[in-house]
Structure formats: C-alpha cells, structure tokens
Amino acid sequence: MYFLNQCSHPKIINIVIAFIIFLFASYDQWINHNILSNQIKYTLPNYGLFKYVICPHYFDESMIYLSLLIIKPCISFIIIFLWVLINLTISANQSYIFYKEKKEIKISNHYIIIPFIY
C-alpha cells in the first residue's frame, strides 16, 4: 500500500494549470464571500456565478482543492479532493433545500454546486 501514496514530482504544465485554476477560484471565492456578506439575510444573490449556482463559493473551494490534486495526483490528494467535494455537495444540497422551501426565492434555473452539471 505504500506505493499508492507516492506522489511524483509535478510537471511544469501541471503547476501552471493548477496555479491558474487556484488564482481564478480564490479570486472568485473572495468575490462571492463579499457578495454574501453584503447580502440581505437569507436571500439568494444574483451576481457572478450566483446567477447559475446556489453555492458558487463551494464550487470555488472545490476548484482550489482540484488545483492541489493537479499538482500532486496521488491517492492522498484524491481522497482529500473527494472528501471536500462530497462534503460541500451535501452542504450545497442543504442550502438548495432551504431556498426551495422559501417560496419567495426563485431557484428554478440554478444548479446546486457545479455550473451546468449539478
């Protein structure tokens, strides 16, 4: 089992791709948190990725962990990425249920966490 945890040295292209994903996801997450902090309580914003996804800050967090997986594609990082993705998907689903129960918030065209997929 020891060999499953051996991470190879990352290729430069992996580092560049991961860095770009990390920067965009971190910046977008910062924007989304600012939008949420200035939002009226318990309403769904209609800016940026919030137009398409109920929890874009969770999507951004998943992309940050994906960037780590791109740099070090070994079993440890696969498990970490899957843990974060599953955990945030469950949390996003709970947010979806909450917004769905609030009749005054329209969410019919929104995905839960991953734009255009789920």
Automatic annotation (TrEMBL):
Entry membrane topology: Multi-pass membrane protein
Transmembrane segments: 12-31, 63-86
Keyword NADP belongs to the record: yes
Catalytic activity: a di-trans,poly-cis-dolichal + NADP(+) = a di-trans,poly-cis-polyprenal + NADPH + H(+)
Protein name from the UniProt record: Polyprenal reductase
Pathway(s) where this gene product acts: Protein modification; protein glycosylation
EC number(s) on file: 1.3.1.94
Keywords: Endoplasmic reticulum, Membrane, NADP, Oxidoreductase, Transmembrane, Transmembrane helix
Biological process annotations from GO: dolichol-linked oligosaccharide biosynthetic process; polyprenol catabolic process
